Structures are given as structure tokens and as C-alpha cells.
Amino acid sequence: MTIQATITPFNTFERVESRVRSYSRSFPKLFDKAKGATIYDMQGKAYTDFLAGCSTLNYGHNDKDLKAALIEYISNDGIAHGLDMFTDAKEHFLATFERLILRPRGMKHQLQFTGPTGANAVEAAMKLARKVTGRTNIIAFTNGFHGVTLGALAATGNGKHRGGAATPLTGVTRAAYDGYHGADINTADLLDRQLSDPSSGVDAPAAIIVETVQGEGGLNAASPGWLKQIEAIAKKHGALFIIDDIQAGCGRTGGFFSFDGMGLSPDIVTMAKSLSGMGLPLAVTLIKPEHDIWKPAEHNGTFRGNNHAFVTAAAALEKFWSDDRFAGDVADKANYLGQRLAAIADDHGLTTKGRGMMVGIDAGSGERAAAICKICFSKGLIIETSGSFDEVVKVLCPLTISLDQLTAGIDIMETAFEAVLGSHRAAAE
Amino acid sequence: MTIQATITPFNTFERVESRVRSYSRSFPKLFDKAKGATIYDMQGKAYTDFLAGCSTLNYGHNDKDLKAALIEYISNDGIAHGLDMFTDAKEHFLATFERLILRPRGMKHQLQFTGPTGANAVEAAMKLARKVTGRTNIIAFTNGFHGVTLGALAATGNGKHRGGAATPLTGVTRAAYDGYHGADINTADLLDRQLSDPSSGVDAPAAIIVETVQGEGGLNAASPGWLKQIEAIAKKHGALFIIDDIQAGCGRTGGFFSFDGMGLSPDIVTMAKSLSGMGLPLAVTLIKPEHDIWKPAEHNGTFRGNNHAFVTAAAALEKFWSDDRFAGDVADKANYLGQRLAAIADDHGLTTKGRGMMVGIDAGSGERAAAICKICFSKGLIIETSGSFDEVVKVLCPLTISLDQLTAGIDIMETAFEAVLGSHRAAAE
Amino acid sequence: MTIQATITPFNTFERVESRVRSYSRSFPKLFDKAKGATIYDMQGKAYTDFLAGCSTLNYGHNDKDLKAALIEYISNDGIAHGLDMFTDAKEHFLATFERLILRPRGMKHQLQFTGPTGANAVEAAMKLARKVTGRTNIIAFTNGFHGVTLGALAATGNGKHRGGAATPLTGVTRAAYDGYHGADINTADLLDRQLSDPSSGVDAPAAIIVETVQGEGGLNAASPGWLKQIEAIAKKHGALFIIDDIQAGCGRTGGFFSFDGMGLSPDIVTMAKSLSGMGLPLAVTLIKPEHDIWKPAEHNGTFRGNNHAFVTAAAALEKFWSDDRFAGDVADKANYLGQRLAAIADDHGLTTKGRGMMVGIDAGSGERAAAICKICFSKGLIIETSGSFDEVVKVLCPLTISLDQLTAGIDIMETAFEAVLGSHRAAAE
Amino acid sequence: MTIQATITPFNTFERVESRVRSYSRSFPKLFDKAKGATIYDMQGKAYTDFLAGCSTLNYGHNDKDLKAALIEYISNDGIAHGLDMFTDAKEHFLATFERLILRPRGMKHQLQFTGPTGANAVEAAMKLARKVTGRTNIIAFTNGFHGVTLGALAATGNGKHRGGAATPLTGVTRAAYDGYHGADINTADLLDRQLSDPSSGVDAPAAIIVETVQGEGGLNAASPGWLKQIEAIAKKHGALFIIDDIQAGCGRTGGFFSFDGMGLSPDIVTMAKSLSGMGLPLAVTLIKPEHDIWKPAEHNGTFRGNNHAFVTAAAALEKFWSDDRFAGDVADKANYLGQRLAAIADDHGLTTKGRGMMVGIDAGSGERAAAICKICFSKGLIIETSGSFDEVVKVLCPLTISLDQLTAGIDIMETAFEAVLGSHRAAAE
Q1: From the CA of B311, how many Å to the nearest CA of chain D?
Q2: By CB distance 3.0 to 4.6 Å, which of A231, A275, A303, A392 could disulfide with A387?
Q3: CA distance D241 to chain A (A)
Q4: Which UniProt keywords are given for this protein, alphabetically ordered (chains A, B, C, D) (predicted)?
């Protein structure tokens, strides 16, 4: 019986998987296949994926070229796991990253392959900043998200995650993100004031770590001017400037780095999520050469050499970043997406959030946002919330999504907003 | 020219990779393929792998069945990355793990998929123990290794790694491992004495975390009796008993768990390394149901659902753990390996370390051990050191290695020991 | 010879006292006697004391009635030291404090006799707030000073003192004091914003600790409205409201408590400095009954029962606080002092700081302020600086000073300001 | 009415004093006068004081010469409070301390006047050791007591006090005191083993802090040989050697320092309790000149110049330490006291603890010890307990006690032991 068939696997999860599981609660279906911007459940029902692994699948599910490269590599007995030994796949990735990403930007950063999670890349960045400066305090921002291992978690703002530590989190001073205290207050000035005052009680920082767009924190997007000022404050006070580009990087906001074109020169950049191109675990910490003072193996990790990910990552760089076409395409889609969301927001007296293809609508409350997402899912759209109160409906679709599928997804969103919030336009007329 | 060919890629690493890299310094070759217990460099030279990803490749490189399962999965557009949504691959892994591993042992643990690194599994375990007990102190042991993210690093003993934090590590009290103070002192008694004394200054612990064999710490193997006593001490003092089975598990010491057959019932078990079977990043924290009090997503991580790894992990369980043959085979090899190492050690007045297929010889100093490993590598054997002073030559070959290749590898070791230490037997005669 | 006579004792200090000594560097004379607002050096030269033990000698040196009470007590073999046993002197102090201070204000606080230092009273307050709430984070303010023991030091803003810890200070989040970011920004709103946001990264606080006037931090005086708002924020977010009244209390700003008449109801008040009336070590932590959840001796200290100090403290309460005359007298002097300082400040385009008899002039730089104080000392006036850059010339004379001596002291200040800054009034004419 | 008279003051304490009070629970009488080894309650009843302010009153209550010196000083308007300015009283104390204590021992230590509590002296010592070495870890011992402010509390072993922090205590690693693991285990060897192992997980220490006799921890007395070894271990591993002589110093164990005659040369010594001679708050941290790297005021505190205490402290040094008579007298009494306690212990199959005039009997349980002390109090003897379970009946009488009063006190103890434990000798016959 089909009922039996669908119930059994759920029972497995109920029986064997920890209750820490989360997304499966919003999307209680059993999925098996995925291609591009579409995920399929076991009954063959297709869902458009506006979540995309929280920006891990910027190039979509199972891109045919990445897939082919990976299958070929495996078929040829390419090394899957080699700790951090020299492998052909790693060399190819490094050379490609240097050629297509670093050199065109005049960047001379060294790549540290950390454990293949964003949190690990952040941990490495924080440790290194402390080593380099001999200071321990790190400035992180309200609503920032940097991971949940104990070092990174201290920099993360989210209260639920912080509470999971069940012990005090130390080593981080919180500063207010761009716009946090309203349009009239330049929060960078507040930070500079404190760091310039030897009796402020804010210790001289080892680093300032910032996301250019806060993915988990509510799609707050910092202005280039504010980021420039934060970078200047870091330099002025002898701190390293770290950009956590884990969620906003890899094209999500347009360029390969979310800070492309802003004239910034971060001392350290953390990357993960879409870096492997295909959703495979991979993370790097980019370090300016003068700060690369690690002793061999001082920060290590078994899976710091995920060679499958090197293969797909190099293929992704080659496919999407060897010229400007992909970036241009993303810009066009972002433009369309932005206009559509602005219209929906306008209809309901709401505001949009974010930048590039990392945008959403502040629905006004977590309850509303949850209701909207639930309706979307019932109509075949996977979409999630973000923000302090989960009040932002967030679009993180694959950047490679077709315009038709993007349009159809947004249409579902529009319907869901109307279903939950009523037709304001109609009401007004 | 071949010279050019070999030099160029090294230049890439020199130019672009952080100096934190380590194993590539011991084995300065460029590798591209691997099969079973053999790795090949770009010139096609074959090396026997007695390192095996530090016990990540217990089933060897590119096992044909795991490889086939993975290629089929990818070819069919199986989901690569799905955050922690329900997927067919995950369900299949969970059900297989339950059927082949948990049920036969009467274990009812829940599986938490943490970020796919051992450190992350340990972080989750430590956080959860603190949540469950409302205490913050965790007992870890001398020479223990549990990862380098800030929470796990506090539990790690290695001074170089600890120094990498560049900030004080907190929340862990150090206890002496089995045998640490010599054969006459039962270190479990020392710990119990301190925990039983309300004025000892050792705060009531949330957990005691222990490796049954300390892989990085010098292949120190705890006796079953000592482990039983540590478990009893944990229970007596209201602490959770955590076994970190990341390196010693998955058959390395014989059974699937390194503690199989010891009558232990750990509250939490951490696993990673060989869990995926093929070297892909995967980690789980096994939690007794009564301790699984996580809120949804309280501990999360982008790559906690590495579906490729679920596929190979399930295939590995099916292939190696559906009956006793593999374990029996490992036991035979371990027996042979142990005898050979004992003979070598005996020749030079040295001692062996470890248990099962996680064994080595204390060469007496780090310099000697390094010299031995260097000779081995020149003769086509990849082998590394372990211990406080890197003084232990450590054998972590694939468990699936053929007896011929195992023998050949040990023969190289024997030669290298003689080359460095002289032929004691000869001298004595 | 007089030269020999003056040099010898200095040699003793040079030889035997730690270089941590500080005030003796500003006032390099050997003093032996003191009466009222006057200190005498060994040559019999008189100095007017505008430092008064940093507000520890609000009733002047060796007040005749306090002195008489103490001599009588000692002569009669009154208990000097009794740990925290019940003594007649303690009972008398408690009953007097209750009758003259607590009851008239409708306060029901319990008195905890901590170790007899302000820092210890603050440590007790912080520990208790954490016990009561089960939270660890404590909000303290920019430029706050609360002592230099490790717990209190975390709440102290001064960088030099913080650096003395030589280890990271934890458990405190820094907020901006009233006016810290200029007149246009209500810093209480900034704090409330962060505490109201579950993802701000500022953990729910156990307490907010504040000085109504920051004595060491530059004589910054908070407005009653801001303090009321801070108290409301504490209550709103489940935190205890702690006023550190160690320097500003005991009449320094007019009332016995610096917050008298503001309608505040702090959960905990810390007191020390002038509490004993005669400069003897004494500190108390006042605790609302519902928060007094200490176990017996949970916070202890050998000198928590300084009975000599109980005797003089009770006598001081009786003499100065049994009616309104003293407070009225202080108000008159504060009025005169304020006008004189305003005139001096106005002459030089400077601003005054502080409130009541805890006032000063921001000289614009630490160099200027030091030069002014040095001239004052050469003219027989002991006066010190305060502030992030030691830029504030601070008046903390005994509250009992005669109008004549006060006038003469201010006259010296006026001369010193002119000597250092020139005669602006003259220049303008 | 007498009933009214005795009840009223108790009501005051009940109403107004925090429940943290402790000794008043064991000795619920209201005391007013004290002389030598005798305290009197308000009804004039005399009690022999075998507690002596926990060793703060080594020279007895209100010694006539100290009292006379203090009264004269106050009568002449001697400075009571002068922050850390140069005063005649301080100079006299420093010169006397140098002449009578430091020079005869060849010590060149500098005196830092910290806040006048033992805890503050310990905080200063810990901070300075961290500054000097650039390390943060401090080794402290099981059952050690060093104070309850947050820094010192981390070094204190007692669980109740530690729990009062309500936040994790950091920066201290616990080692086992001499004899802690029984006579067969040299705990200094255990510590050396851990510090010599770079992977032990015990970070290189800034200091080792130790009491020669653990006053609060159960009168555990370290052997000179063990202390020498601990000092050697500190030096070997680059750590400062700190002796906390707050309770055991000032003649309590015979010499002025508890380590006199042991050939030790501690880098830092902390002193408080009996230092002032008369029970007035005073504390110093003695620092070898090469470690006295404080910046001016880096560690400060309002009451660091308690001039009344300087007066009595200098007088006490002059009276008791200008020749060997006092030390000889203490040795004689200690001999007598030791024999009597040994006899009592022997009668009941118990063991004695401690050294010099800091001795007691392990009654076997806290209940027994409490019962014994209660009986003693009912017979006019004030005596308290010590140890992890408050199981040690502890004699800390004034060192100046007459042999008659000492004998009478011990007789009461003997009776109380028999009352609680029965007459074993009788039973055996």
C-alpha cells in the first residue's frame, strides 16, 4: 500500500534521528532526486527550491558538467580522501582559484583548507587573528551568524544557537550592524567611538568579522560605505578585517565575492556553502600572506582535503567564473526578482530585505512568515524564513534557475502573501 | 620535461596554499589515484598506505562496491545536498545503521548528523552534555585528541593544537589516562577521589569523554576494566559517559565500535572518519534517547546532510557489517600485525602500543620515529608518527589490505627500524 | 640635616615598596597627620585635600566625634576583629543604618558585610545576581569603574586596569553610558534594542550595574531620566538593577545615596569608601530581601567584620544623617563649588563635569590636567585627575570643608588653570 | 528585662543582616569585649577563643602595646586613610618589616599593599604571575583556599564557595596536594609528569600557588621535601612559585613565615590575617624585585593604605619578632598542644592534623565534629571545624595564650570528644 510506503521511512526518522532535525519539520516529505532548481519527492512530485541548501546550491542541484566531472573522477579511482597531502585534484582547484578568482582581483591570499564546514573556516579565522595580533577580543555584529562550534558560536548572534552552548560564550564583543539603530545612527561611528576610548571597556580587538549581507540574521545588507568604514576602523585599531562570505559569496549577490567592486581588502575571507559547486562539504579560509603564520598542522581536521569537492569546485569555477556572462545573468535575474518582491511588499505595506539574489520580504512577524511559507510548500515551493523573529520570507533560489521557474516561484509567493495578508491593493481600491 | 611537470604543481601549493599544510611535508609527492591500500603519484609510482587518512579509509581507497553505489546515485540525480531534510539516502542509511549496528547491540541511541567533521560531533556532544546536566565542566584525558574547534580543542591535550587557539581554553578538567602514571597507579581511582571530595576544586562534571585507544596521543590503549571504572565513576557523579570513537571505531580495533564486547553503555558516542566508508565527510553523534533534548536546529550546520556519504556509508555497513566475516578477518590480520610489530620492537628493545589494527612501536624519540618513517616513504610506504613527542611509529593501514601487501609493508618497516636503530639482534649475538 | 631626614624615608619606599604605588608619584611628600580637610607633611606644611581618599573621607580626616568614639571603643577592649560573629558594635551599626538610612526611604534591603573593599562588594553583587537569575551576563557601562579583582575588573572599563589581568575578562557586556554617543543618541534605547532582539548576540543579563556618577571614568553624571529608563530595562528583561554607590554615595552628591529622590529602587546597592566615616576599610552590599538567597558563608572573607569601622560608621550616621542639616549644607557648598568651576571653565572655553560635590573641569587633555594639578600641589592643594585620558581635574574635597578653605582651594585651581591655559578672559578683552 | 535585652539585638541581625552570615550561627551570642585569648558576651560571660579570627589574632585580642600604639596614633591625628600616598606610618612599617623580617632571611621582596583582604593579595599575585610569564594557567591544589573573589575563587577548592560564583571559574588547573592520594603516591611527581608532557593538556603554568598548611582545607600540612619539589617543578617549567601564607604565616606554625627554615625561595608570598597584629584589615603581596613589573596603579584599591593597620603591624613586628623569644615560646606551646591532641586522638582511634599551632583532630565526620564544637561552646570554648566535610576540629588559639588557659581549653575539648565519641580508653579496659 502507498500509505505503508510513505509512513515507513518517516518512522525511521522518528525512531532513529535526533530531534535536533529542523528543515524536515517544515518540509515533511521524503525527497530523493534533484536537478537544477527542482527537488522531487518519492512520489515524483516536483518542488521548486527557493532554499537551495541555504545558498549552498547556487549552481543548482546536480549541474550536468559538475556531475560529469565528479563521476569521471570517481570512475578513474581519483583520490577521494587524502588528508592534506598534495593531490592532483587539489592542485587543479588551487590553480584554477588563483587564475580565475584571486589574480583578476589582485588578491594574494593563501588558501587554508579547514575542516569542510563554514564554522570550521570561521574558527580558523578567529584563531589566526588572535595569533597574529596577540589579542583575544573579536568584534562581531548583531544578527550575525558564523556557526555553532564554541568559538564561532561566540560570534553568532542568534539566541537559540547561543543557548545551545549551555556555557558562557567568551571572546567576542558585539557591535551594531549597519542600520541596526535606525537610519539616523551610523553604527560604525559608535564602534569607532568605543575603540578609540581607552576606558570604554571594549578591549582592543584582534579582528572585526562581518557578513556583507546577513543571511540568517534577516537579510540585512550593509552599505558599501559602512563596510569601508568598518574596514578602516579595523586598520586604525590594529585589528584584522574578516569578511565571512560563506552565505553571501559565490555569486549570490552578483560577484564571486559579495564585496566585489567595493574596494575592500579583507585580511581574511571565509568561504564554504557553494564553494564546491555541487553541495559537497568544502570550506576555505583565505589569508593575506603576511598573516599566514600558522605552524604546520596547528589547525587541522580529517576532512580538510575533500577531493571530490575539489573536482566539482574547480569545474564550477571554470564553468561559471571564466568570464562575465554568469555574473551578468545573475544581475538580470536579481533585478527581476527585486522588482517582483518590491511589488509584493508594496502591495502589503511591507519592506524588502537583502541584496542581489539574497533577498526577501519582512512579513512583519514570524507567524505570518511561517504561514506564507507553509502555503508556498503546499503549492510546490520550498522557501524558508530568516531574521530575529523568523519574520523574513527569504528567497535563496539557485542562481541558475530559469526565468520561467523563477517567475512561477515568485507567483506562488505572491499568492501566499495575499492568502495570509489579504489583498491590500484590492482593499485600498 | 618531467622535472617541469613535477615542479609546477608544487609551485602552486607554495604560492597558494597556507603554510598550515602538514602531511604534504612528510610525503612531498603529487598523488592522483588510489585503490585499496595503494596510492599512486603522478609518475605512477605506487605507495602502500599505512596511514589511510588517519583511519578514515578503513575499507581502503575507492572500494569498488561503494564507488559503484555512489556513481549510480550521482548518475540518477540523487540529492547531493539537502540540509537536514528527509532524503531517501538518509533514510536508507539510518535504517541500515539501526538494523546492523544498533539493534544487534541493544542500543537505542538517536543519530544526530552534525557538521561532517569529528570536531563538530564532539562539539555537539559537549554542548548536549552541558545542557542535559546543567553543569559546564567536562573531564577529558591526558593525550586525548578531540578536534581543534574551540570547544573540542579544550578537550584536546596536544600543546601545539592548544596553542593555536591563542586564547585560554576553558570548560575542561584534565584527568590522567589509563597507565599515565605507571602500572602501579590506577588513574581512575585518582579521578574518583577528586570527584568524591567536595573541596577538591574539580567541579562536578557534565561528562567524561574518553577514547578507548588514543590515536593521536600515542596509541595508548585503555583496558576494559579501566573503562568500566570510568563509566561507573561518570554514573556515580551524575556525569554523562562519552566515548569518542572517531578514530578507533568502524572496525579499527576489531568490532564496529571500539568498545564492543566490553559491557559499556556510553550515553553519547561520536563517530566520523571511516563512517562514510569512502573517505567522504560524515559525522554523527549517537545519543541515548533520554538525553536527546535538543531543540530543533539548536545545533546545526550546512553540511549535516551529506547524502553522498549516506550512500557510501550504508553500502559500507551492508558490505562489511552484515555478518561477522569482516570482523574475523580484521582480528586475524591484527593478530599477525601484532606479532610482527612485537618482534620488531623486541629486536630493538622497544615496546609496542595500541590495540587491534591501531598499533605501533614506540621508537624512543621523535627524531628516530621521523627517520624511520622517512626511510619507509623512500621505499614506498606511507606511514606516520603519533604521541606526545611524535615518538610512536603508527600503523593505520586499511583493514581490507591483503596479507601480502600488509606483509610487504611491515617488511619495509622492519628494514627501516634496523637502518635507524641498528641490528640489535645481530649486535647481541 | 633636613636633607637626610627627607631622603631616608623615600629610600625606604624605593627599596621596599612595589612600583605599583601611584598617588605617591603625584604627591611626593611624606605625610603624617591630617585633620578635617588638611593634610600635613613631616615638615609641618599643610595641604588642602581636594582628593579626600577618592571620596573616602567625605566627613574629613579624623573627625573629632568619630575619633573619640573609636578611641573609647579601643580603650574599653571593644572587639576589633570577630569574623562575622554577632558583636555589639555591629548590632549598633545595623540598627542605626536601618533607623536613619533604610526606614526613612522605605528600603528593606539586607546588609551583607563583604570583605572590606569596594571591589569585594561588587564581586558579591555580581555573584548574587548570577545566582538569583541563573544567567551569567552582566551589563556594565563605558568608563565604569568597579574594582580590579577579576570579577569586578570585567565590569571596569579602564584599559590599564583591564590589561593588568593579563587574561581575558569575561561575563560582562559593555553598554554606552548616558551621553556617551552625544546628546542626540539615547544610549538606553540602544541597550533596550539589543536586549529586545533575541538574535542581537547580547545574552539575557543577570544584572545591569551602573554608577550614577562615574568617579574614575571622568565625572560623567547620568540623568535621572536615563537611570529610570535603565532600571525599567533591567526589570523588563529580568535582570537585577545594581547601583554601585561606592564613590558617589555617602553624601558626595547630596543625599546619603547618590540616587536619593530619583524614584529608583535598585535590587542591589554596593557601598564602601566613606561608609566607615573615618577612612577605615568597610564595605556592604545591600540586597533586597527576595534576592538574599546566599547560603551561609557562601561568600565570605576574614575582615568582613571590621568592628572599628562599625563604631565610626555608626557615629558618622548619627552625626551627619539624623537630620537634614548636613545634606543642606552640602547642597549649599555644591552650589558654590559648581558656580566657581563653571566660571573657571567658562574663562577657558572648557566644560564642567559631575554632580554635587563630585565635580570637575574637563581640561581638554591629560597633559593639561596633569600640569594644572602639579601647580596646585606646589601651592598646597592636593587634587587629582579622572577620565579616559586623565583629562578631568576632579574636586573631591571633604564635604565638611569650611567655606573659607573651599574658597582658597578653588582660588588655587583658578590660578593653576590660568597658568596652564592662559588668561582667556584677558585675551578676549 | 534580660530577655528583652538579649532578644532585641538578635532581631536586628535577623531583620537587617544578610543570611550569608555564618559564624554567628555556631556561636549565637552577642559579644562586646575581648582581651588576649578571651571574648566576653554582653552578659559578661567569658569564652576562650580557639578560633582567633581564623588565625587573624595570633597575638590575641587587644594586645596592650598594640592598642596603646594605635590610640596614641589616633589621638595625635595620625593619618587614617591616605590611599597609597607616602605616610610616616607606612614608612615605619616598611622599614620595620625590612629590618626584622626580610633582611634576616636574605629576602629582597618588594611589598605591594593590595586591597586589605587576603583575596585581594591573591588576586594581585595571580595577575602579576600572568603578566610576568605571558601565560594564563595557574596550578592550585586540592582543598586549597585562596579567597572568594572571582580570580582567587578559581584557585579555591571548596565546592560551596565555588558554587557561589554561579558562573564557570577559569584559569586554574587543579593538582593533588601532598598526601592527597595516600602515602604511596608522590603527588608532586604526578604534577611534574603532566607538565613535562607537551600533550598532557595541562597548559604551561604562569604560577603554582600553594599553602604550606591548608587551614580551611582540613589542616593538611605539606612536608618540606614536597614543597621543595613543587618549587623545583615551578622553576623547571618556567612558572612562578607562590606561597599563600595568609593563614599559616605570622608565627602560626612557628616562624614568621610558615616556610621558614625550609630553604624555599618563593617568587611571591601573600600575607594578610595576622599581619596587622590586632585584627585590622591589611594585606600585602611580597614580590621578588625582578617580577615587580606593575605599572603604577595597575592593580589598585581604595583601602590599600590602611594606616591604623600599619601602626599596629609595625608595633607587632617590634614586639614579637625582634628576637627569637616569641618563636621559641610558640614552639613550646605547639609541642604541648600537639602532645595533648595526639593523646585525645589516640584515645578515640583518630588522627591529628596540621603543624605548629595550626593543628586539629580529624573527628571522622562533620556531624561528630559539629557536635564536639557545640559542646565546647556550651562550656565556654569557641572552636571551629575545617576540611572537605568539616570533619576536623581545629585549634587556632592566639599564640600568646597562657599555658593555663590553653590547658583549660584543651581539657574542654577532651571532655567534648569523650561526650560525643565515648570513652574508648575506658571501653578498652
Answers
A1: 37
A2: A392
A3: 25
A4: Aminotransferase, Pyridoxal phosphate, Transferase
B220 touches B237 (CB < 8 A): no
> pLDDT tens digit string along D43-80?
999 999 999 999 999 999 999 999 999 999 999 999 99
Q: What are phi and psi of C28, to 5 degrees?
A: -80, 65
Chain B residues bordering chain C (beta-carbon distance below 8 Å): 167-168
Q: Which residues of B touch D157 (CB under 8 A)?
A: 199-201
Q: Which residues of B40-56 are buried (b: 16+ CB within 10 A; e: fewer)?
A: bbbeeeebbbbbbbbbb
Neighbours of chain A (3+ CB pairs under 8 A): B, C, D
Sole residue written with cell 600558522: A294
Q: Which CATH number fits domain A66-321: 3.40.140.100, 3.40.640.10, 3.40.718.10, 3.40.47.10?
A: 3.40.640.10
Find chain D residues with C-beta within 8 A of A131's C-beta: none
Q: List Cα–Cα distances, D85 to C28, D15, D270, D315, in angstroms.
A: 8, 40, 22, 21
Q: What is the chain B residue with the closest CA to C169?
A: B168
- Residue contact A198–C143, C-beta within 8 A: no
Which of C142, C200, C203 should be substituted to probe chain A, the one whose Cβ sees the most A Cβ atoms within 10 Å?
Answer: C200
Contacts of C158 in chain A (CB under 8 A): 198-199, 201
Give the contacts of C64 (CB within 8 A, at least 6 positions apart): none
Taking an 8 Å cut-off on Cβ atoms, the answer to whether D217 and B199 are in contact is yes
User: Which residues of chain D are within 8 Å of residue B185 when distances are taken between CB atoms?
Assistant: 181, 185
Count residue pairs from A and B with Cβ separation < 8 A: 394
* Mutate which: D8, D30, D32, vs C, most C CBs within 10 A: D32
Which residues on B lie below 8 Å from C168 (Cβ)?
Answer: 167-168
Cα–Cα distance, D373 to D382 (Å, whole number): 8
Quickly list DSSP for D212-270: SEETTTT-EE--HHHHHHHHHHHHHTT-EEEEE-TTTTTTTTSSSSTTTTTT---SEEE
The residue type at A219: L
- Grid cell 590480520 in the structure block, residue: B333
B14, B20, B83, best to mutate vs chain A, most A CBs in 10 Å: B20
Check if CATH label 3.90.1150.10 holds for domain A22-55+324-428.
Answer: yes
Q: What value of ipTM does the predicted structure carry?
A: 0.96
Q: Parse chain A into domains and list their residue ranges.
A: 22-55+324-428, 66-321
What is the arrangement of strands in the sheet containing D31-35, beginning at the earlier edge strand? D31-35, D38-41, D46-49, D381-382
- Going by their DSSP bridges, the two strands B384-386 and B392-395 should be labelled as antiparallel
Chain D residue with the nearest C-alpha to that of A134: D134
- Among all residues of chain D, which has the CA nearest to that of C73? D33
Q: Distance between CA atoms of D353 and D398, rounded to whole angstroms?
A: 18
- φ/ψ of B422, rounded to 5, equals 80, 165
| Subunits adjacent to chain B (3 or more Cβ pairs under 8 Å) | A, C, D
* A309-360 pLDDT, tens digit each: 999 999 999 999 999 999 999 999 999 999 999 999 999 999 999 999 999 9
